[in-house]
Specification:
Nuclear Transport Factor 2, Chain: A, five-stranded mixed beta sheet, two-stranded parallel ribbon, globular
Amino acid sequence: MDLSKRGHLTPAEKTMISQTLQIFTLDGIAGSLGDMKGRIMFHGGTSISTIHGSPRWSEDLDFVVSPSMSNDLDAVREEVERQAAERIDEVTPGAKFELVDKGKARGKVREADPGTVMRWTGRWEHPSRIGVVKIKTEFYIAEPDITALYTTFDATGEAVGIETYHPIPAATLDTIWADKIMAMSARPAMKWRDVYDMGYVMDHMGQMSDDDLYKRLEVACASYRSSMTTICDGLQRDYLADLSSNYQTFKNDMQSWLPGMAFDKAEELGALEKYHEACVTQIDRARMMINARVAEPDDEDYACGF
């Protein structure tokens, strides 16, 4: 990246800087915290790329945390900011980076209540570039006993040729499967990246029984205070029911999320069509596994819980 001349940030530069900041922020979080087991989980689209090797770029860093961990994160945010600022200055000398808790910046007093989200916003700017790069880090606060039930493994991440030094509890692919089913059932509209992510998960996860996947879905369901009947109903929305006939729309959208030659390669290898078909299949699979395990909604609410 040539910073000797002033100019507008290019899309490629924005993506590179964003991914670099994500890696530095992730590493800063993992390296600054103490006991993380059962108290924090790195998941979401960026975990699929940095931990599990997906080529799809994702905008945010997403975590599930216990209430006590959210307090720990409050205490280390400035240290994470300091480390990330020092490291990004080595990549883009002269850059300014800040990491702000959005709620506190607005004068809000935030309680560590389960069901709420803590958000950090990272902002990069440089005197040689017109424009800024922002990254979001979101921490969903779950019940402490639920956070510990997620299936995770200690993992390091990698992006743009940079590896993290410190491992962090990250979602396994079967946990991500449940996350994606949960998310697609709850969204008000189609997010085409979910389709790609589900296809990637199925291409790399290996064989998993319906019983095991259902257990993962129970944890996600309880964490987000939903019910199996609500999830099943959500999976029958029109935009999901019509997914099988919307391949072209999915393909067009993915051009924005697969950088460089990744889109062309995915299209050439038939991966996009394969992933699209896999997502359709998994939505049907989730609906059938729920219907096979719960009674009629009229008989009981079937809220998820442990």
